[in-house]
């Protein structure tokens, strides 16, 4: 076991306990209000024995994490804490979060989920923010702190700052935006959320599952740790397996494609002029430099592409490297049946090729060679002219999704 520290929103120090091998898939545990990471002890041990690296995090104002002097515990600060922790991790964990932690995780993963995590498990996380219920829970926790002055492991100022109505607005419609495999675990006799509300919430998730723990009001308790651990391990083995997918010649081509998708690339649109003077083009991410002297590059074009015959025969072509604002252009040139150039700013370049204005860079090329390459052909070009815009950021593509640069 080791203790690690992260920097949360506004530099707040956040403390976590870590068990398990660095080489095992990661699980991040997030507790609820008035708790600490210790509440996960039994679950964490079960996950470690199942071959997972477990990071149990204390929220700000709880346990070993910093209790900020300014008493800032508003919901957005808690959400940004989690996003900051996830961005500092060297892997994308499955996030397991209960009650308030579930609200935080849901809001944090509403956007860029696939960049930050590989899955989400919500445990007894209320679907609707009930102000009356929140008040009752707050009163219980304040009373517990009052009965044990100086021994409380969380900051009582938390409930003076959290605005339940603001949280309700923040969480409205969030389920439909969580683009991750998600498991919702509910105590069968929970007062926090009804079975109907839980089912409705899961129904809005793009990829959601619902399970119930019998005879349980709250699932994250010592006597329910075995049941919760079983559901977690089943979900992890199915949706975030420890073993790496494997491709062998003759097996599923999709697995091969997924393996290739682990190589992050930029995105280009390859363009040329048809003999009748009309422009043609398509989106491609198989692009690389070949030589600096002479200046040469190559792109790979699918034989089945509608533009393929023209690109194969074109004496000159252009490769336009797209910037972050040109995602619609990438989609347009990857699709069919749309007037691609009619709604895309472009001009005829110095060497007669269609150049997309506003691109990160554009290379006008003369055809140097064409090579067959299975279901693609390799188009090699000698660069005649290159222009670029150094102040823009690239449009990236990784594991089947568009991405953007993250600056550390």
From TrEMBL:
Transmembrane intervals: none
Keyword Oxidoreductase: yes
GO molecular function: FMN binding; riboflavin reductase (NADPH) activity
Record has Aminoacyl-tRNA synthetase as a keyword: no
Domain of life: Bacteria
SMART domains: Flavin_Reduct (SM00903)
Sequence ranges assigned to domain Flavin reductase like in this UniProt record: 260-404
Keywords, in A-Z order: Oxidoreductase
PANTHER family in the record: FLAVIN REDUCTASE, FMN REDUCTASE (NADH) RUTF
Name this protein carries in UniProt: Flavin reductase
Species assigned in the record: Sphingopyxis macrogoltabida
């Amino acid at each position: 076991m080791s203790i690690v520290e992260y920097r949360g929103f506004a530099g707040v120090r956040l403390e976590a306990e870590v068990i398990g091998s660095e080489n095992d898939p990661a699980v991040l545990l997030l507790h609820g209000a008035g708790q600490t990471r210790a509440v996960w002890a039994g679950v964490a041990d079960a996950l470690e024995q199942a071959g997972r690296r477990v990071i149990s995090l204390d929220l700000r104002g709880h346990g070993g994490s910093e209790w900020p002097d300014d008493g800032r515990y508003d919901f957005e600060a808690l959400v940004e804490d989690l996003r900051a922790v996830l961005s500092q991790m060297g892997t994308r964990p499955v996030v397991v979060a209960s009650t308030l932690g579930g609200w935080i995780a849901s809001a944090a993963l509403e956007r860029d989920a696939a960049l930050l995590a590989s899955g989400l498990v919500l445990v007894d996380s209320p679907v609707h923010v009930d102000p009356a219920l929140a008040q009752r829970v707050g009163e219980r926790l304040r009373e517990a702190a009052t009965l044990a002055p100086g021994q409380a492991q969380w900051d009582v100022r938390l409930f003076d700052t959290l605005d339940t109505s603001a949280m309700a607005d923040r969480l409205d419609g969030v389920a439909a935006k969580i683009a991750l495999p998600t498991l919702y675990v509910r105590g069968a006799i929970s007062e926090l959320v009804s079975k109907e509300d839980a089912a409705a919430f899961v129904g809005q998730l793009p990829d959601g599952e619902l399970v119930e723990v019998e005879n349980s009001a709250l699932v994250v308790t010592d006597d329910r740790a075995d049941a919760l651990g079983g559901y977690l391990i089943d979900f992890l083995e199915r949706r975030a397996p420890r073993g790496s997918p494997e491709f062998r010649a003759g097996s599923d081509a999709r697995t091969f494609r997924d393996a290739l998708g682990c190589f992050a690339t930029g995105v280009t649109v390859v363009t040329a002029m048809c003999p009748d003077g009309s422009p043609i083009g398509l989106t491609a991410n198989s692009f690389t430099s070949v030589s600096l002297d002479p200046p040469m590059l190559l792109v790979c074009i699918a034989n089945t592409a509608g533009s393929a015959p023209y690109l194969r025969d074109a004496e000159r072509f252009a490769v336009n490297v797209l910037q972050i604002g040109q995602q619609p252009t990438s989609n347009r040139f990857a699709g069919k049946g749309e007037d691609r150039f009619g709604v895309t700013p472009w001009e005829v370049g110095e060497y007669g090729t269609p150049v997309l204005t506003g691109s990160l860079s554009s290379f006008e090329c003369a055809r140097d060679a064409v090579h067959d390459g299975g279901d693609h052909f390799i188009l090699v070009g000698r660069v005649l002219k290159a222009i670029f815009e150094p102040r823009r950021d690239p449009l990236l593509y990784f594991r089947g999704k568009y991405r953007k640069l993250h600056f550390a």
